[in-house]
Specification:
Elements (H helix, E strand, L loop, with lengths): L10 H36 L6
Length: 52
């Protein structure tokens, strides 16, 4: 007999995956925003704009 695929996932795969459905986009946008900020900083630094 094969595995019972209708059984609930439990806490690790059930709640754990639900947390990452919320945290995934937050991590993605955070990495993307920091990459954009780094590019802006690099461009301004090469242009000679110095930060106080």
């Amino acid at each position: 007999m094969g595995p019972n695929l209708t059984q609930a996932e439990g806490q690790v795969f059930g709640i754990g995956c639900k947390i990452f459905t919320i945290a995934g986009p937050v991590i993605l946008y955070g990495i993307f925003a920091s990459w954009i900020a780094g590019v802006v900083y690099y461009v301004l630094d090469t242009m000679g704009v110095y930060w106080a």
